[in-house]
């Protein structure tokens, strides 16, 4: 299809949704992709650009002139435009912006660039419909018609005062059923949910999904209405947040994907493996310390992978439950209660597993009951300690303002491995006395 | 506050959002919660009910009469009402439904109960605005006004033919700017995204977030418009899906939360720990098989937790990347390419780690270079095999229609532990010859 039969190609793609075109472009090699992007009309190209894979977009933008990029940005909502500009190399940002024809649009984009991308300011768009409380209904309707041209979906009409402070919202129904001379201040609804421009994206997502909102106004430190966040941006936040937590739990950083190249994947994976390796080498040292047990109780050493697995699994379970609980705000009550609960839970799980170990002991010739009991008791202690570490490390991190999700995965497995193996041998030594 | 000062309480809660009241009710004990629910007016109670924690709701519903529940359901959209009914014990369902006064509403709810809760049918609501293609604009507007009373947010106007088949959608703007005598068939937009009533909830979420839709119509096998799904339901689907995958990766089932009771938590966690225990006991057997190495190469046994940790970590990383890739549809290309990529990646990571092991060997007195090399080589082989298992088990599960997420977490760690330890000893035996 790529043999320059432009009109046929355009006809073919004319009816296709931009998200689907983006998928096609992702699959093409660079010259083909750039060619296709330039071929499409600006309206569609800009939408395709926002949907592209980040790596692909970066490479395509390199092949476009500043004027071409500025042209695309003009077609986009301010939030999408700002996201794309933020990916450009710094030296190009200014040139591209100075090429945007609509100066208002450029000013809005520049303002959005100021905010952290993980804040409400970074998510919001400047496009919204607002009316002054002192206007009458007739003026409102006229102004709204003009404003609505730039806004893809209206959702809500926000009411502000002369200082641009958010006062409330207006229902379309009320607007249409009251006399044209009524003042907005008499009919608007003063109750409106809003977020502050510096609120974290995560918290905005929580508020919007809790109250089932499809759009929320954003205000600055002075209470002025500065933007609006819509639900589709929040869907992306929720997905990214979930993927990040999932990857951290699996020991992967940097938001990699299955189709990234080998170097990107290595950078994301190797550091965590090194962490695991150091933990494993730590266990080697610990076991060397207990070497004297080899003569009489060599089976102890056969049980180390089991102990490490238990310590790791229990730690990951406990930390995952806490991390999710913290994210959903369901971790309440005192630390002491939580401690008692984890110990209780570990005792139940530990007892069940200990019984299995003792039963298993009967089937191995050279393991006596005393030895089985030693293993069972040590294992239970390891499980309790592992559960406590898994529970409290995330809580402590969270209290200090660190993302508790980093405490899941390799971090907790490795520390629990070392701790578990040491505790296991130490207790075995106390009981068996070697 | 609970001392029966009803009016003061009602005043206090009058202005509070139902989602916040639900949070308060979640915290109360049962008699208080039931009291509060009965106190609030039906309009608000029904919304509070939908937002409650499932366990709490179940207990409160037990304390309400069939008539009371039916009254609440009348206030709810059909999808929320069906969700609540689905939680009732079977013998009550029929009685509650027969108590719903509005027979149309009851019929809609019964229809929704037929669908699997994880399908488009289980997510959709019957409330929507539809017009017949043969109507003229005037009839449309009249009919729409009547229909819109039952619909919280209109989003889209769907166009159907005489057989109720979905034909397209109508833009509000076109409706208002054309003459009242124009037929709908002349102005409607025939292009509309839709999903089938039996599509999986996950797939609906993918379509809606890909195309940034805020609502999507649902059709049945005959192409008839049967319902509509809105974005807030999809937000819940995305969140639940993410939580489920996260919990599976951590070895937890049954969607538990940090504040569930000890028995629920035990049921969710113990089975996975038993799996891990069996794996650990398997390792014990394997090591007993290589017991003869103890005399000359006892350090091999000190390295088993390291090998198990490496095999586990690499396996979890590989599987997590694949599971996410499958969920986002980015796993493309042939299996052979993926195999080569994983092997390449493992060789790079493995080499780096092997060098660290050899360096480490110099610092331990009684480990010779030959021994260090043996460990390094065996470890690399284990890493490669672990990566391959981690990559291909999810792919195979996915091809057979099983959720690949179950292959992450304890399942992959346990099998990789056993496999890794066996391979490690086997290779060491070949190289060192004991």
**Range of helix content of chain A:** 55-70%
Which class do the helix and strand fractions of chain A yield? mainly alpha
Unreliable residue runs of chain A: none
Query: What is the top-level CATH class of the largest domain in chain A?
Result: Mainly Alpha
Q: Which protein chains are joined by the largest interface, and how many residues does each one contribute?
A: A-B, 96 and 96 residues
Number of distinct helices of chain A:
22
The oligomerization state is homodimer
CATH fold assignment of the largest domain in chain A: Tetracycline Repressor, domain 2
- What percent of residues of chain A are in strands? 5-15%
- Provide the succession of SSEs of chain A: HHHHHHHHHHEHEEHHEHEEHHHHHHHH
Mean pLDDT of chain A: 83
Question: Could you say which overall geometry of chain A the principal axes of the C-alpha atoms support?
Answer: elongated
Strands of the widest sheet of chain A, in order across it, are 1-2-3
Over the alpha carbons, how many angstroms does the gyration radius of chain A reach?
A: 30 Å
Distance from first to last alpha carbon of chain A? 77 Å
CATH architecture of the largest domain in chain A: Orthogonal Bundle
């Amino acid at each position: 299809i790529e043999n320059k039969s432009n009109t046929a190609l355009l006809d073919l793609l004319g009816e296709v949704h931009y998200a689907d075109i983006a998928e096609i472009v992702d699959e093409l090699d660079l010259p083909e992709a750039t060619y296709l992007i330039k071929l499409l009309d600006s309206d569609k190209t800009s939408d395709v650009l926002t949907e592209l894979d980040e790596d692909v977009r970066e490479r395509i933008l390199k092949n476009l002139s500043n004027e071409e990029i500025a042209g695309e940005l003009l077609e986009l909502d301010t939030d999408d435009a700002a996201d794309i500009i933020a990916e450009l190399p710094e030296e190009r940002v200014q040139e591209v912006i100075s090429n945007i024809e609509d100066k208002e649009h450029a000013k809005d984009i520049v303002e959005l660039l100021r905010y952290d991308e993980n804040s409400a300011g970074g998510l919001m768009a400047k496009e919204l419909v607002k009316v002054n409380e002192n206007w009458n209904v007739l003026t409102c309707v006229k102004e709204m018609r003009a404003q609505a041209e730039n806004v893809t979906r209206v959702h809500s009409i926000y009411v502000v005062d002369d200082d641009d402070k958010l006062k409330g919202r207006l229902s379309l129904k009320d607007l249409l059923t009251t006399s044209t001379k009524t003042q907005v201040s008499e009919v608007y609804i003063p109750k409106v949910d809003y977020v502050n421009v510096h609120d974290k994206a995560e918290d905005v997502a929580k508020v919007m999904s809790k109250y089932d909102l499809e759009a929320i106004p954003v205000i600055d430190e002075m209470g002025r209405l500065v933007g609006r966040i819509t639900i589709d941006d929040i869907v992306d936040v929720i997905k990214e947040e979930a993927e990040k937590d999932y990857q951290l739990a699996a020991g992967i950083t940097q938001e990699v994907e299955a189709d990234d190249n080998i170097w990107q994947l290595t950078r994301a994976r190797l550091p965590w493996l090194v962490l695991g390796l150091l933990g494993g080498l730590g266990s080697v040292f610990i076991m060397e310390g207990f070497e004297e047990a080899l003569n009489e109780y060599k089976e102890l050493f056969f049980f180390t992978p089991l102990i490490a697995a238990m310590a790791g699994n229990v730690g990951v379970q406990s930390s995952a439950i806490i991390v999710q609980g913290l994210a959903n705000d369901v971790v309440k009550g005192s630390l002491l209660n939580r401690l008692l609960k984890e110990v209780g839970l570990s005792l139940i799980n530990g007892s069940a597993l200990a019984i299995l170990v003792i039963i298993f002991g009967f089937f191995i010739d050279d393991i006596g009951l005393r030895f089985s009991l030693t293993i069972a008791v040590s294992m239970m202690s390891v499980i309790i300690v592992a559960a406590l570490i898994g529970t409290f490390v995330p809580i402590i991190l969270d209290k200090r303002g660190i993302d508790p999700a980093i405490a899941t995965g390799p971090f907790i497995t490795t520390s629990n491995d070392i701790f578990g193996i040491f505790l296991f041998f130490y207790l075995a030594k106390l009981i068996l006395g070697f």
